Structure prediction request, 231 residues.
Amino acid sequence: DAKTTQPPSMDCAEGRAANLPCNHSTISGNEYVYWYRQIHSQGPQYIIHGLKNNETNEMASLIITEDRKSSTLILPHATLRDTAVYYCIVRVAGNAGNMLTFGGGTRLMVKP
Amino acid sequence: GAVVSQHPSWVICKSGTSVKIECRSLDFQATTMFWYRQFPKQSLMLMATSNEGSKATYEQGVEKDKFLINHASLTLSTLTVTSAHPEDSSFYICSARDDLAGPPVYEQYFGPGTRLTVT
Prediction:
C-alpha cells in the first residue's frame, strides 16, 4: 500500500472549517483514500473514503487532487468534539485480505 | 451503523497471569477480524489477522505463542495475552470486516478498545 504523509498536528478554531492535508504521491490507480479518526482512548471511527472524485457525507468532505497525489479532509464547522487524531490511509481496493495500516496521523486540536 | 464491541473495556492483571479479550460484531458477520495494539502517543500497530475457522496470521515480531487468537464463530474473536508482563500493558483494539460489504471497498469497523495494565 502507498505511504501517506500528514502534518503531526494542527489547531482549528471552533466553528471554523478544519482542512487536513494528506500526501500520497505514490498512490496506485486501484488504491482508495480512506480517512479515520480516533478520539482519545477510543477505537478509530470511519469518516469517509474516495477513489478520484470528491466525496461528501454528513461528517466531512474529501477533496482529491486530479493527479491523486494528495487529498484534503474538510470538517466544515469544527466543534470541540472533533478534537482527535485523524488518519489518512490508502489501500488497494478489491482485496478482501487487505488490512488498514495506520501511519502517524494528524492530531487536530479544536479550540474555543 | 455496524457495531463492534470489546470486553472488557479495561483490565488490570498481575504479571505472569493470562488475560482474555473478546471482540464481537453485534449486527453483522465477520469472517475476518484484526487485532491492533497501541502504545501511548503512538499509532495503531497491526498484530494479527484473525480468520474464522483457521489459524491467525501474525505480523512480524508478534509472538503467536504469547498472543493467542481464536476466531471460533462469525461474530467472535478472542485475544489471550498469556503470561502477561508490564511491557504488554497497552491499548488493544479489534476491528471486524463486514462479510456483506464489498468489493471493491471492504468495510472495516473498530471496537472501542481494551486497556490492559499489567502490574
Q: What stands out?
A: Chain B has a mean pLDDT of 92. The two ends of chain B are 37 Å apart (CA to CA). The longest strand of chain B covers residues 90-97. The interface with chain A takes residues 4, 6, 32, 34, 36, 43-46, 49, 91, 93, 95, 97, 102-113, 115 of chain B (CB under 8 Å).
